[in-house]
Structures are given as C-alpha cells and as structure tokens.
C-alpha cells in the first residue's frame, strides 16, 4: 500500500486508528480514496480483513470500492472483507440472526411497491375506513418512521400509525421484511440482545462509511451500536452533497457524531483531484447560494479547462437528438471512449427519449436504474414464483401469481381467503390448509387453492435437492408460462421481448446459483440476493464495456466521468416542481452540485424552451441554477445569456451548529 499516493491530510485520516474520524470535504477531494487506502492500511497493520466493514449507499459504489481495494492489496489478504451497502449488511445480519427475531430462514424482502400493495390489502379488511388515495402517503409515513427509529407503538394516533401496527404484524406473519426493516430490525435486535451485539462487535472491529451525510437516524444507531464505546470508525462525507432528506437522511448526524464521540477527530480536505478549475469554480459558486457550514476552499492543480457550454433546445425531442449528435461529434473530435460520457438528469422519466436518440445514432449506452428489468411484469411474475419457493408465506408473491397463469382462482376467492387469513393471523398459504376455510369458501375453490400450494411445495422440495435451475425451468414449463405470455401479448414482437426477459432472468439466476453453491441452501441465498439487487438499485450487471452512462443525479453520487451532460436544466425539473412548491430549493441545489462535480474535463448543460407536460406543450423557464453559475465561464450556444436575478439565502440551524463545531476543530 502506498501512503505516498495521499496528501498529508488524507494520510492523517488514514493513520488515525485510535480515535473515531470524520472527514468532511467537498466533491472530488479524495474522501472515498481515504476509505479504500485506510482499508488497505488497517490490513497491513495486522487487522484481518474479515474484521473490517466498509459501507456505502449503492451496489454500484460498493462494487467500485471493492475493485479499488483490490488494486491496493492482493486478493488473499482482502478475503473476508465486507464492502457492502448498509442494507446488504442489515440483510446479512437478519439472515444469520433470524431465529432471535422470530423469523424463519426464507425471508422475503418487500420493495415500496409491495409495501403499498400490502397496505391496500390491510386497509381493505380494516375496521377503520381508509381512503385509497391516502395510502401512498401513509406508506411514505411508515417508511419515515422506520428511518427515524419510531416504532409502531411510538407513532401516536395518526391514521397511518394504525396501519403501521397491522403492517408490521402482517410482515412477521408472512416472514417478510421491507427495505427499511433491513436496518431497523438489526438495531432492535442489538438493543435487546447484548450477547448478539457483542458477537457482531467482535466480528466487525473497524467500520468505514462513505457518503456519511446521507445516513438516517436508524443507520446512525446501527453504526453506534456496532462500533460501541470504542468508536472504531472512519466516516467521510460532504454536507453539500446530502440529497436524501426524503429518505430521512440527516445532516444533523454530523452534529450528533460530535456530541456522541468527544474524541472525534475532524479532518478537512481541500485539494480537488477530479475536475478542471472552471468546473470547480462553477460548482463552488452554485453551492455558495446555500447557507454554509464552512467556506469550501477547494482548489485544483489541473488547468482551468474549457468553458462550460449551455445548450438551448427547442423541445425535449430536440434535446435528446442534439445531445446524442453533440456527443458523437465531441467524441470524434476529442478521441476517447463512449464510457467517458455520462448523461445525467433529475427524473427517471427523462431517460426514455435519450435512450431512443442514442439507439437511433447507434451509440452504445447503459441505463442505470429507472423503469428497468425488474419492473417488467414477466420478471416480477417469475421472481414471485421464486420467492414462494423459498418462502411460501410470502403473501405478496402469492397474490401476484395465484392466478397467473390462470387457474380459476379469481379475485373473489382471494378476497375471502385474504380476510380469513387476516383474522387468523396466518399467511395465505397456511390458510389454504386450515379446516375453518370451509366456512368461507366452497370445496372446489379450496381444492384449486390446495392444488396450487401442493404444486409449489413439491417444486420447492425438488429445487432444494439439487439441479435447481432445471427444476425451475420445468416449473415454468408445467404452468405453461410461455404460452401465457404469448396469449397476453399484443403482438409477436412484444411476446418475444418478454420471453427474452424471462430467459435473461434465468441466466442471471444460473450465475447467482453457481456463486452460492456449497453454502447452505443456495436457492434461498440466491433469491434473497436477487430481491435485494432488485430493491436496491435495479441495475443489471451490464455496465461493463464501452458505453455512455445514462443515470439520475441521485444515482451518480460518488462517480466521475471525463465528460458530463447535465440535461433538463429548467424550472420545474431541476429544481423539481415539488421542491419549488414547498419552497425547499436547497436540496435541489445540492443535487445540481452533485451533477456538476461529476465532471472531470468538460461539462455541458442544456435546457428546453418548450416541453410536453400532461400532453400539452408548455413554455419552460431556464433553471435558476443556470443564473447562479459564474456567467463569465459559460458559453451559451443557441441563445443569449440570462439576466442576473436576485438570490436569496436561508439559514439552517443544524448547519449553523456544524459551522461552530468545525471552527472549533480548526
Ligand atoms: N492524493 C491524491 N492524488 C491523486 N489523485 C487523487 C488523490 N486523492 C484522490 N484522487 C483522485 O481524485 C478523484 C476523486 O477522488 P474520490 O472519488 O475519492 O473523491 P470524493 O471526495 O470521494 O468525491 P465525491 O464527493 O464525489 O464522492 C479520483 O479519481 C481519485 O482517484
Ligand atoms: Mg466519494
């Protein structure tokens, strides 16, 4: 490991192992590098890799970090190292400690879609009346409570709290957890069972957290519990890049850290190693419009660089087309690869037109996140079958495929089965075999249900005995899934595409099964992994190769690209309309800051003069963020510069406090 690859501040952060460390610094200043080098340093100092865990927020970031560590130390010494997302670590804890939580081995993980469906199910049978339109808000609230470490009995007498209680009870009955439980349940477990906590503390002796600014309260608790009083951890973050307030992330956690760990060492980094001077200047100028904790004195040794281009397009179709054309032209002039380019946008729905334009120009691309693979109905169907094979009590999966393909188990039957199961506090699957069911359903319906359940049980048994993939393929054959797809498709092409998705899923499954071989219950491990990938960031493993990256600003955090297009810079899009309505622009500004600071060499911003909204073409106003950039560094293409407008700044208590702390720290 080469400490020489670090500047003095980074080196200090790496070598400080006896106190908790917080590195707080702007984008591109080498925070993630501190983490990867520190992992290598700790191992060199004699701490076995299996005692170290580095946590990030996305699978992609975790994969990248693993790779970077791999370049620093040889593979053997890195064996057993945990580099994962918070949620993957939580899942690992749950899988190992499920008994202590009263759960069975085959856990199901619900995504936000499943959560809403389950709430609908609960609301339908609840004595209290819930308006269907309110359910998404209730679902959101339940998520916020979980992120804020508010338990059902502490949620007060809010209508959502009633649902929260029943929801948690149902999850348990179904042997399921939702995304937020992956953090919440380990925290509860550790609080209630000190001996289990001790075991984990002994295993994970040093923790490192990247993007610390985006941790929520529950994650913070998990961190504190795991590191215990010794506070053996290093966290790195940038308050200007906090972009998950809606998921409960709290910059207050930076303050909290200082309060809870009096020996905390705070280290700031000031040299940027990513971007040209001009890009850095633009980023600094933009973020200066937010109330500030400390003046960022980021500087770069790289040249000042090309002007930042601003392209005005007639409408979103022109934007997509011309961006693709510009990219091709740019690449032709500069040389380089497609993978040097990223197109970043605020919302997933913006991706579609860019995809189409890139395809038309034969530019290879990789779409990260969004409406993707796992959202296709056929993929969800097959995954639901897989979920049922490892956990028959997974009601969401049961409801999805009990009648897919059709086996005359209609909505009325499922409805009656559902309310019966709810009364009895058992899963749908279990309810099918209860004697009492004869009081609500006729014999034929019960026969059909039991036939379905028997079938699943039989497949599950065989799948566990070996040759799992073949058993699953045979199951799809037996239920006639392919014919079902053919019948349901609008045309042959659509059918082919859907069937191909199923084939892709099976290929993927085969790979994961291979990886899991040798462990106990490979099918179980594989399906859980598949579900987590699905829930976490919905990316497929296809990003390798020479492709342009298409992704949201949220997904781009922590990454860097030589050339970045930041598109859709309009009021209503960036900043997003909901934030404008709530007069809460700061988080949007941070998002924009994240976007700009992804760029290493060139940055191109664009906006449309018109855009279709709810089927109508409406005039657009260029984003206020364009006005906040240093106008002398912008090169306007297709339109003249914007008039300067007034800027306003607002204070924020937590940030103020942090400022004081940082000043104290020097
Ligand atoms: N001391 C250094 N010498 C040379 N290059 C460095 C040094 N530190 C970091 N870099 C490089 O600078 C770039 C940015 O580093 P890194 O990704 O660690 O920054 P970061 O602070 O984590 O950024 P972000 O806030 O966007 O996550 C990377 O390409 C990294 O390899
Ligand atoms: Mg980073």
UniProtKB/TrEMBL annotation:
UniProt domain UvrD-like helicase ATP-binding: residue ranges: 4-276
Subunit structure: Homodimer.
Protein purpose: Rep helicase is a single-stranded DNA-dependent ATPase involved in DNA replication; it can initiate unwinding at a nick in the DNA. It binds to the single-stranded DNA and acts in a progressive fashion along the DNA in the 3' to 5' direction.
Its EC number(s): 5.6.2.4
GO biological process: DNA replication; recombinational repair
Protein name in the entry: ATP-dependent DNA helicase Rep
GO MF term list: 3'-5' DNA helicase activity; ATP binding; hydrolase activity; single-stranded DNA binding
Listed InterPro entries: DExx_box_DNA_helicase_dom_sf, DNA_helicase_UvrD-like_C, DNA_helicase_UvrD/REP, Helicase_Rep, P-loop_NTPase, UvrD-like_ATP-bd
GO cellular component term of the entry, any: cytosol
Keywords on record: ATP-binding, DNA replication, DNA-binding, Helicase, Hydrolase, Isomerase, Nucleotide-binding
Family designation: Belongs to the helicase family. UvrD subfamily.
Top enzyme class: isomerase
Pfam families, alphabetized: UvrD-helicase, UvrD_C
TM regions (residue ranges): none
Catalytic activity: Couples ATP hydrolysis with the unwinding of duplex DNA by translocating in the 3'-5' direction; ATP + H2O = ADP + phosphate + H(+)
Segments forming domain UvrD-like helicase C-terminal: 277-558
UniProt binding sites for ATP: 25-32, 274
């Amino acid at each position: 490991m080469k400490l020489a690859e670090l500047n003095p501040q980074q080196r200090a952060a790496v070598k400080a192992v006896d106190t908790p460390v917080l590195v707080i610094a702007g984008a591109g200043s080498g925070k993630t590098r501190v983490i990867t080098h520190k992992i290598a340093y700790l191992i060199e100092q004699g701490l076995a890799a299996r005692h170290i865990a580095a946590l990030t927020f996305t699978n992609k970031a975790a994969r990248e970090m693993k790779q970077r560590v791999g370049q620093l130390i040889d593979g053997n010494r890195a064996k057993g190292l945990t580099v994962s997302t918070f949620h993957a670590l939580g899942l690992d804890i749950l899988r190992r400690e499920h008994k202590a939580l009263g759960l069975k081995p085959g856990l199901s993980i619900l995504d936000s879609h499943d959560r809403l469906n389950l709430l609908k199910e609960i609301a339908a049978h609840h004595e209290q009346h819930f308006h269907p339109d309110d359910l998404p808000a209730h679902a959101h609230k339940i998520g916020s409570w979980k992120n804020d470490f508010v338990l059902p009995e502490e949620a007060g007498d809010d209508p959502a709290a009633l649902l929260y209680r029943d929801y948690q009870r149902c999850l348990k009955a179904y042997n399921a957890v939702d995304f937020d439980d992956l953090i919440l349940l380990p925290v509860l477990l550790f609080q209630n069972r000190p001996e289990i906590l001790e075991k984990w503390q002994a295993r994970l002796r040093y923790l490192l957290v990247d993007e610390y600014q985006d941790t929520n309260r529950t994650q913070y608790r998990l961190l504190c519990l795991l590191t215990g009083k010794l506070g053996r951890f290093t966290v790195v973050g940038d308050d200007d890049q906090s972009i998950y307030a809606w998921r409960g992330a709290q910059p207050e956690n930076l303050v909290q850290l200082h309060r809870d760990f009096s020996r905390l060492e705070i280290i700031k980094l000031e040299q940027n190693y990513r971007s040209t001077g001009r890009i850095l200047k633009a980023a600094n100028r933009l973020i200066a419009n937010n109330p500030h904790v400390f003046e960022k004195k980021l500087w770069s040794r790289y040249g000042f660089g090309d002007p930042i281009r601003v392209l005005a397009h007639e409408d979103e179709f022109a934007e997509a087309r011309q961006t693709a054309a510009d990219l091709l032209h740019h690449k032709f002039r500069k040389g380089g690869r497609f993978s040097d380019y990223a197109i970043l946008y605020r919302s997933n729905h913006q991706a579609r037109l860019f995809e189409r334009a890139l395809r038309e120009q034969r530019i290879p691309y990789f779409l990260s996140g969004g409406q993707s693979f796992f959202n296709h109905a056929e993929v969800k169907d097959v995954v639901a079958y897989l979920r049922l094979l490892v956990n028959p009590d997974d009601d969401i999966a049961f409801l999805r495929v009990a009648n897919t393909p059709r086996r005359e188990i209609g909505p009325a039957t499922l409805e009656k089965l559902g309310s019966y199961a709810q009364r009895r506090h058992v899963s749908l699957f279990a309810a099918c075999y209860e004697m009492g069911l004869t009081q609500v359903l006729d014999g034929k319906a019960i026969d059909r249900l039991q036939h379905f359940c028997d079938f699943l049980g039989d497949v599950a048994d065989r799948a566990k005995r070996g040759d799992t993939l073949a058993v699953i393929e045979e199951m799809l054959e037996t239920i006639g899934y392919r014919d079902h797809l053919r019948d349901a498709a609008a045309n042959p092409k659509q059918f082919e595409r859907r069937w191909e998705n199923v084939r892709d899923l099976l290929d993927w499954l085969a790979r994961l099964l291979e990886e899991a071989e040798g462990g106990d219950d490979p099918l179980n491990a594989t399906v859980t992994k598949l579900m987590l990938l699905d829930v976490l960031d919905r990316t497929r493993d296809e990003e390798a190769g020479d492709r342009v990256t298409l992704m949201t600003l949220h997904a781009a955090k922590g990454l860097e690209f030589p050339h970045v297009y930041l598109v859709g810079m309009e009021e209503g899009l960036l900043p997003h309309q909901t934030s404008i309505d709530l007069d809460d622009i700061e988080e949007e500004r941070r998002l924009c800051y994240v976007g700009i600071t992804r760029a290493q060499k060139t940055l191109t911003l664009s906006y449309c003069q018109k855009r279709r909204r709810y089927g109508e073409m409406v005039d657009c106003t260029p984003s206020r963020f364009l006005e906040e950039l240093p106008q002398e560094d912008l090169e306007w293409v297709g339109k003249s510069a914007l008039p300067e407008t007034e800027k306003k700044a607002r204070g924020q208590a937590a940030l103020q406090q942090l400022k004081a702390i940082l000043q104290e720290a020097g």
